[in-house]
Amino acid sequence: MGASASMVAVPAAEACGEAGVLEAVRGIVRSQLAPIVNDIDQNGLYPRDVLRALGAAGAYRTHLPLKPAPAAANLTTAIEASAIASQSCLSTGFLMWCQSTLAWYLANSENDAVRSRYLSRVADGSQLGGTGLSNPMKTFFGIEQLKLKGKRVPGGYAVRGALPWVSNLGPDHVFGTVFEVEGEPSRRVMFIADCATDGVSIQACPGFVALDGTATYSVQFRDAFVPDAKVLSDPVDGYLKKIRAGFVLLQTGMGLGVIRDCIDLMRRVQPSLGHINKFLDDQPEDLAETLAAMEAEITALALTPFDPSPQYWRRVVTLRLLVGETAVRAAHAAMLHSGARGYVMASRVQRRLREAYFVAIVTPATKQLKKMLAEMNC
Ligand SMILES: Cc1cc2nc3c(=O)[nH]c(=O)nc-3n(C[C@H](O)[C@H](O)[C@H](O)COP(=O)(O)OP(=O)(O)OC[C@H]3O[C@@H](n4cnc5c(N)ncnc54)[C@H](O)[C@@H]3O)c2cc1C
Question: Which of the listed residues 128, 151, 183 is the one where a domain comes to its end?
Answer without folding.
Answer: 128
